Amino acid sequence: MAIDRKSLRGKLFITIFGAHTRPGRQFDLILLWLILLSVLTVCLESVPSIRSQYHNILHALEVFFTIVFTIEYFLRLYSHPSPLKYLFSFFGIIDLLAIIPFYLTFLLPAGHFLVTIRILRLLRVFRILKLTSFVHHAHVLKTAIAASLQKIAVFMLTIVALVLIIGTIMYVVEGEQHGFTSIPQSIYWAIVTITTVGYGDLTPKTAVGQVISSIVMIMGYAIIAVPTGIVTVEMSRTQPEKKKSENTECLSCGKSMPVSANYCSHCGHHLHE
Fold this sequence. Notes:
Elements: H1 8-17, H2 22-45, H3 48-53, H4 55-79, H5 83-87, H6 90-107, H7 114-121, H8 138-174, H9 183-194, H10 207-245, E1 247-249, E2 256-258
Antiparallel strand pairs: 1-2
Helix pairs in contact: 1-2, 1-4, 2-4, 4-6, 6-7, 8-9, 8-10
Membrane topology: Multi-pass membrane protein
Main location: membrane
GO molecular function: voltage-gated potassium channel activity
């Protein structure tokens, strides 16, 4: 269903959904700050000292944000060419989750349901998912990760085999008397150590175990860098394709020119005729 861009509905559609237009960018910027401030309000409300001292202010802010997001939600429904398609889309569901917890607190009765209401109010943090609509260049990352999946899968299988071997060795070296009561427990230690997390709840006591632990820690730094390197290489491979897609071919001389150019720099032909 086509929308007349000169009508009120068309202008609203360009402003709300037109991320590459000037009004759309301004709308997105304002909405971005409102989302961040709303999520910050939810987080501050969870702090008992802040909630007791600034309850009225936080509640007023929550009412304000809910009203704004409600208006935005219905404007999106009104201006979209296919309202039902938007309603059941990913972003449509996220936009609904951003406002519905506030109204659910009025629908549920009081009394012993107060605990349930407080849990429902925590769903307001889903507003942070609205930020995903501002990630316009996520396709590059998505393509790079998809291209890296096979290599990362092989890498992860190697790590699984490695922690299994290390865990078994540590179980033999340290033994149950030093806390390594089973191979799964030793594998848990190996994973914690090789990822450089180091909870400290399970540590080797023997000299051999400490030497092995030191080697595993050093290995961990190299291992962490591998997936990052794999994805970075794939991302760099997508860049030439991206640059190529941003060019257009002159119909007169056949030279490649940027899409933003109006005239060919070689023959002067109008590129968009």
